[in-house]
Design brief:
Layout lengths: L11 E3 L6 E3 L24 H11 L10 H4 L11 H5 L30 E2 L10 E2 L50 H6 L13 H9 L4 H8 L28 H17 L10 H10 L18 H10 L7 E6 L5 E6 L34 E2 L42 E2 L27 H10 L5 H6 L2 E2 L7 H7 L1 E2 L21 H12 L20
Helix pairs in contact: 1-6, 1-7, 5-7, 9-13, 10-13
């Protein structure tokens, strides 16, 4: 299988015929080579550390015991919010403590393990802000051994987990688990102790797992029993303050970190990142010589409809490299016009190139559909998020601003910039009546309305004028109200000057918008991870 290079240098490799994930620690590598899509995938295909992580992910480890990782990251909905009614209004998930709630839509965990650690990049020229990678909407799960911006980054899992309490190195090959260090494992450290999420202490997590039937998996993975004591460990994490004894890590901290590394390992498996969508299978069948046209492995694909193939071409067409389309004009004559959507400038692995247009064409086998950079597309504020706004639509607490974005991680940056999500599984849902929420604050409730926004958001532009779209008056705040009034509310934070070039005045017809939606729906994985079966302890105990 062919290696596909990435300027973002994703750092995960799937080995053909194996499920074990080999991640390179703290350096960026080539884009992955991965095995066949897992049509017959089972938990038996997981490594021990991945299986441990899966049990933790699906277990209701919270106080009270009513919330699990899967509550916010449901495989059946593409790794994001699992409750249609919540997506329709509140967007943020109620915590284990029912009197608490977050302020953002859960980002997808699918394909997140393929994201590079937070780093400076050169994507700022098109409206970004020169940062890429990391986990969370603002990238604060940095994934680096030394955080790029320590004051805003979360804690990091490092080599301290490879030592016993007294400083003795663990036996065996456990140091190989450093392959799973990175943003996704660092992200896993945060939801359980968070009072508005799972609301359980690190020691409480340790004790919960220690009493679970699958606890023996921990010993099989790490070669030691799980230690939930408060004994100070000899080898401390590198991102702690050595002068502050209250910052010292205890045995339970190390056990907790090992569990979260396992969660990160599972999120890097084919169980989560299956590459099993209609698009993936159609492309693979052409490359395997099954469904072949005169351009095997290139678009158009035999396995996609004409509308889906057209949507693909439009997805990758940009102002720099538009596609030419023959139309019948108002005079009834054929006319060649240029069309573009600019989608691939942000939703492709390699959006930058010395020449016109994105470097990727969409025919890459394992395209992730995100440059993992940060942009402000002008999303309106979501006034339905509970507890964030007063009756006048004003923020109650500036520090809890749902639209803060990367400014909450890196000092000095403007508000409103969020990490570009993948569009893989963007339409995955629990049936036709299930509502999904889109963008960081969930203001959009359908893929169709989001694409329409990208096309027409500049209310002073020619495209908005063609559709009769204006700026919404005060009191028209929700997506439903805006669509009914054929208007868009003002953005939470004004777009940078470069963004109107990319978003808001694209001159797309309703048929063009529908084709883009049709293509993105081909990116829905057929495989969904299922909750593991109840663990059966080995008889040796």
């Amino acid at each position: 299988m062919k290696n596909y290079q990435s300027i973002l240098m994703k750092w995960q490799i799937y080995v053909i015929g194996m499920i074990a994930v080999l991640l390179a620690s703290m350096v960026f590598m080539t884009t992955p080579v991965r095995s066949e899509e897992p049509d017959d995938f089972s938990d038996e295909d997981l490594s021990k550390i991945e299986l441990l992580g899966k049990y933790v992910f699906f277990d209701k480890i919270s106080d009270p015991e009513r919330m699990a990782c899967v509550t916010c990251h449901d495989p059946e909905t593409g790794g994001t919010g699992s409750v249609s009614g919540v997506n329709l209004h509140d967007v943020a998930i109620t915590g284990a403590n029912p009197h608490t709630i977050g302020n953002l839509k859960p980002p997808t965990n699918a394909y997140a393990n393929l994201i590079a650690p937070f780093h400076e990049c050169n994507s700022g020229g098109l409206g970004g802000n020169n940062h890429c990678g990391g986990n969370f909407w603002n990238g604060r799960a940095d994934g680096n051994e030394t955080a790029l911006y320590p004051n805003g980054a979360t804690k990091h899992i490092g080599n301290e987990i490879f030592f016993e309490t007294d400083g003795t190195p663990l036996d065996g090959d456990v140091a190989d688990y450093a392959a799973f260090f990175g943003p996704t494992s660092d992200q896993a450290l945060n939801p359980m102790p968070n009072p508005v999420e799972q609301n359980i202490s690190r020691q409480g997590v340790c004790e919960h797992v220690a009493s679970a039937k699958y606890a023996e998996l921990y010993e099989e993975v790490w070669g030691v029993s799980i230690d939930c004591s408060d004994e100070v460990v000899t080898v401390q994490a590198g991102d702690l303050d050595p002068t502050d004894e209250s910052d010292d890590e205890k045995a339970f901290d190390i056990s907790f970190k090992r569990l979260m590394l396992a969660v990160g390992a599972w999120q890097g498996s084919l169980d989560v990142n299956s590459f099993s969508s209609k698009r993936d299978k159609a492309l693979k069948r052409e490359l395997d010589g099954i469904d072949v046209d005169d351009t095997p492995g290139e678009f158009p694909l035999v396995g996609l409809t004409d509308e889906e193939n057209y949507g693909h071409d439009l997805f990758y067409a940009t102002r720099f490299a538009p596609m030419e389309v023959t139309i019948i004009n108002d005079d009834g004559e054929e006319e060649v016009v240029e069309k573009f959507s600019n989608c691939a400038f942000c939703h492709s692995d390699n959006p930058l190139t010395p020449g016109p247009g994105p470097k990727d064409t969409g025919a890459e086998l394992f395209q992730l559909y995100s440059a993992d950079d940060y942009h402000n597309i002008g999303t309106p504020p979501n006034l339905e998020i509970p507890g964030m706004y007063d009756e006048n639509g004003e923020l109650i607490d500036e520090d809890q601003d749902p639209d803060m974005g990367i400014a909450g991680h890196v000092d000095g940056l403007p508000r409103g910039f969020f990490k570009t999500p993948t569009v893989r599984n963007v339409d995955k849902r629990k049936g036709n009546g299930f509502t999904k929420a889109y963008t960081h604050n969930g203001w959009f409730k359908s893929l169709e309305s989001l694409v329409h926004f990208y096309n027409t958001a500049n209310v002073n532009g020619a495209t908005a004028a063609d559709y009769g779209i204006t700026r919404c008056p005060d009191g028209v705040d929700t997506e439903k109200e805006a669509l009914a009034n054929n208007c868009w509310p003002a953005p939470a934070y004004s777009q940078p000057s470069a963004l109107p070039f990319l978003v808001g005045d694209l001159h797309l017809t309703p048929e063009d918008e529908a084709a883009l939606v049709a293509y993105m729906k081909t990116l829905t994985d057929e495989h969904s991870a299922k909750a593991p079966k109840p663990y059966k302890p080995s008889k040796k105990k």
